[in-house]
Amino acid sequence: MNSKNSVSIIGCGISGIFAALELKKAGIENVQLFDKSRGVGGRLATRRANDGKFDHGIQYIKIDSLLQRPEIRTLIDNKTLAETEEPGIFIGLDGMTNIAKFLTKDLNVKKEFKLLAINEINGSLEMNFENNEKILTDSIILSSPIKQSLEIIEKSNINYNKIHLESLERLEYYLAIILMIESTAPLNLDKKFYQENPEGPISFIADNFKKNVSKKQNFYTLICSPEFSAINFEKDYASINLMLEDNLKYIFGPEYEILSNHKWKYSIPKNFYTEGDSINIGTNNFIGLCGDIFTNGRFDGAINSGISIATKYLKNEI
Ligand SMILES: Cc1cc2nc3c(=O)[nH]c(=O)nc-3n(C[C@H](O)[C@H](O)[C@H](O)COP(=O)(O)OP(=O)(O)OC[C@H]3O[C@@H](n4cnc5c(N)ncnc54)[C@H](O)[C@@H]3O)c2cc1C
User: Residue 119 and residue 159: Cα distance in Å, rounded?
Assistant: First the structure.
């Protein structure tokens, strides 16, 4: 990539995607997204197993305040995003990842590019990736979870404003352990496609068939409670699944199969940055930070944070 007037966005979650869309809309052409994963979406995550599909990150979306945005209207018109029978609750048809795939169709995305550090060299920023690529850019937006962004900054050689560091370092996320289960018979959940359990080790159950994620019936996503996840996060999946056996038998009966597990080190924020929806910490170059933790810890907040950092860039707030 030619570094001239280039903006590099680290993280292809919903906040990074909206930062990129907003910059492109304003006529900034040289925008490149990088993600460490093989796919786009970050916590908008969908996985296949045994002919079925599971959303194993974000479960549903409330977007009242964003309904009039053209990108959201297009997602709805294209049947990528749909309102459920519960008014105001939206889901990604065919899976949440599809939202990210749809929105990135016309964006430049480099996958399997994990940023390790940034070095300021002659007025440019040199990004060093795990795959040994070094790429120059003028400006950078880190939309990775703030803990990961701070790790990058710590290893970097850049000029930046350290006064915000203390409040950024205090930000935390809940850990979350996820189970993806195929049952032999459908469950009766409280709501049309999900059930929240405030008590016990499993705090949320979603029916991926009723949610229109899985074409095949009886595919359930279970999210473990923050307490259970915190205590057991370091254990292997076999031990975690064994510990939950009695709970799972109570929910599904004796016949069920755990097809997959996932651990989120950064799931939902525990606390939030309160001094703005995003922040530019760069003193020579634009070095923006955004993501859900800068707003309300949710999909709509992540979008607002991405738009906020793009607006700061466009206003040349350095
Ligand atoms: C289990 C779970 C359930 C949830 N349920 C809901 C819900 O019901 N409703 C709701 O509104 N929200 C929910 N959320 C929260 C929602 O998913 C997030 O608020 C939103 O997706 C965050 O978007 P983001 O862009 O800020 O971050 P992310 O989606 O985390 O995107 C950050 C991206 O940065 C990439 N990255 C990280 N480090 C690097 C690096 N060094 N180099 C390159 N790339 C990097 C990551 O791979 C990732 O793609 C849930 C989250 C989880 C995990």
Answer: 9
